[in-house]
TrEMBL record:
Gene3D superfamilies: NAD(P)-binding Rossmann-like Domain, Regulator of K+ conductance, C-terminal domain. Keywords: Ion transport, NAD, Potassium, Potassium transport, Transport. Residues 141-225, 363-446 form the RCK C-terminal domain. The keyword Transport applies. PROSITE patterns: RCK_C, RCK_N. Residues 1-121, 230-351 form the RCK N-terminal domain. This is Trk system potassium uptake protein TrkA. Pfam families: TrkA_C (PF02080), TrkA_N (PF02254). SUPFAM superfamilies: NAD(P)-binding Rossmann-fold domains (SSF51735), TrkA C-terminal domain-like (SSF116726).
Length: 446
């Protein structure tokens, strides 16, 4: 596939890195020559210095031959303009990053599509949706829903109270025959394991599980976790993520939002009628005490600074908060933050890149997520009639060792996969895969 990416910022660079390993013909276009030199020295792709809103530069980037044009510069106006121009020049499919909720209103979205913008992506909205999802399912990490919640994928840490600690997958399967779930991966320190029957669960493992919604409490008990309801929460940072989260959750729980900028705090107080907005520094221990941090069930740090978010979450945990979520935009900090116990992490660039990535695949992909604390990916793919995945039961298929099928959605039913399961045409299949297996998995679903 020929792909042109406009914008060598965080999202564009990470997306280029993901795609460069998948045999695509990639061109990265940006006005910043230094940024492009940095990318060019690490990745196998073509870089062009130029403006994505310039017809001359778009033509130089061979946009007319592009199967996919992706505009992810820092300027929403540039993204919209360049995407429209790319479509007129001949790009087959176009995607634009936006920063305006107004464009996602159905009639406005339809209008933009008529101009040539096939898909819109709003990273902050994706991030807020993640936060809301995590707060709704206490005790889990990285919660993802498939087909409207018919199947769930989530991460659970194995505690010392877990009854499955030190037991193999096969032993756990025997003792939990009444629990409908499948462990599809284990993150142990810095390594992601695709488990088989002989693999053991160890204390501190982050286990990724696929289950039906009704099984989640039983799975949590197996891992030594207890469900609790988030009734009181505090948000640090009046960013777009913080605002969108507060708008959604303000009527559902007692919510406080801390913002260090006084003028911004006043604006937020008018905007967020159901949230108590406080002007102050969320890293101030005394301020947190005054605002009742010890009464909070959750603490969400979404300032524009990764270090501030990590430190604030650690402080909140030390002061008794059970559930902490940090926006960590520096990818190099993610493993460190996970190892020191920050809690759940969100990253806009990973969310945006994952959302876009599915449009680069040959198979019919409904959802695609690159997991924040793992180097793996989870996808929801539709099995096509006559595809290899439908030819035999899972145990008789030569499915890649570095991938795992967690479950299937068939019409209105959800099924947890076993070796005896046979996938049928039009089934939606939840697959957990390492980067090395993505192309192999695709071939099973073509």
């Amino acid at each position: 596939m020929k792909i042109v990416i406009a914008g060598a910022g965080a999202v564009g660079t990470h997306l280029a890195k993901m795609l460069s390993h998948q045999d695509h013909d990639i061109i990265l276009l940006d006005q910043d020559e230094e940024k492009l030199k940095e990318v060019d020295s690490h990745l196998d792709l073509l870089t062009i210095v130029g403006s994505s809103s310039s017809l001359k530069d778009l033509k130089e980037a061979s946009v007319k031959k592009a199967d996919l044009f992706i505009a992810v510069t820092q300027s929403e106006t540039t993204n919209i303009t360049s995407t429209i121009l790319a479509k007129k020049l001949g790009a087959i499919k176009t995607i634009a990053r936006i920063d305006n909720q107004e464009y996602l209103i159905p009639e406005n979205k339809e209008y933009l599509q008529s101009l040539g913008i096939d898909e819109l992506i709003y990273p902050e909205k994706l991030a807020a949706k993640e936060v809301i999802s995590y707060l709704s399912r206490s005790g889990t990490r990285q919660m993802y829903e498939f087909s409207g919640g018919k199947l769930l994928l989530y991460g659970i840490k194995i505690s010392s109270k877990s009854i499955i600690m030190d037991k193999t997958m096969a032993e756990v399967a025997e003792m939990t025959a009444d629990v409908d779930f499948r462990a599809v991966a284990i993150k142990r320190e810095d390594v992601t394991i695709i488990p088989r029957g002989h693999n053991r669960f160890s204390r501190g493992d982050l286990v990724f599980v696929v289950s039906k919604p009704e099984s989640i409490e039983k799975v949590m008990l197996l891992a030594g976790k207890q469900k609790y309801e988030v009734k009181n929460a505090m948000i640090l940072g009046g960013s777009r993520i913080g605002q969108k989260t507060a708008v959604e959750l303000g009527r559902k729980m007692n919510l406080k939002l801390l913002e260090i900028d006084k003028e911004k705090s006043l604006k937020l107080a008018d905007l967020l009628q159901d949230t108590l907005v406080i002007n102050g520094d969320g890293r101030d221990k005394e301020l947190l005490k005054e605002e009742g941090i010890h009464k909070m069930d959750a603490f969400v740090a979404v300032t524009g600074n990764s270090e501030t978010n990590i430190l604030a979450c650690l402080l909140a945990k030390k002061m008794g908060v059970r559930r902490t979520i940090a926006e960590v935009e520096n990818i190099d900090y993610i493993d460190l933050a996970d190892n020191i116990g920050v809690g759940t992490m969100i990253n806009k660039k990973l969310l945006a890149a994952s959302y876009i990535y599915r449009f680069t695949m040959d198979a019919d992909v409904q959802h695609c997520r690159w997991l924040t604390v793992s180097d793996a990916e989870v996808m929801e793919l539709t099995a096509k009639k006559g595809s290899k995945i439908t030819k035999a039961s899972l145990k008789d298929l030569d499915f890649p060792d570095d991938a795992n099928i967690g479950g299937i959605i068939r019409d209105e039913d959800s099924i947890i996969a076993t070796g005896e399961t046979q996938i049928q045409a039009n089934d939606k299949v939840v697959v957990f895969t390492m980067p090395s297996a993505i192309k192999k998995v695709e071939k099973f679903f073509k």
